[in-house]
Amino acid sequence: MDRMDRREAHRALDELIAGRWVVSYEVDDAGVKTYTARRPVGWTGDGNPFERLEAPSYRELFSVIARHEPRPVPPPRNGGAR
Is the pLDDT of residue 4 over 80? Predict the structure, then answer.
């Protein structure tokens, strides 16, 4: 992995401090950790509220968060709930 530059590091920290992501990790049956970032419960900001980012290390996860561009959520059909 390329080293994260200062701008990316600041962007990742801004995203985390603003509460746009909840960072955690999961361990599979073989004991391998996968670091994850999910939107907080009740997310109403830009992008998919059920979005999940993952990486093999925190450093790489922060880089993924820094480079992430939210994908727009299409409006509900027939006026239904999102």
Answer: no
Closest CA to 74 of 56, 50, 47, 54: 47
3-state secondary structure of 33: strand
pTM to 2 decimal places: 0.75
Q: How many CB atoms lie within 10 A of CB 31?
A: 6
Cα separation, 15 vs 23, whole angstroms: 11
* Biggest distance spanned by C-alpha atoms of the chain: 47
Non-local CB neighbours of 79 within 8 Å, separated by 6+ positions = none
* pLDDT given for residue 69 in this prediction: 82
Contact in structure between 21 and 45 (CB atoms under 8 Å):
no
Q: What distance in Å separates the CA atoms of residue 7 and residue 9, rounded to the nearest whole number?
A: 5
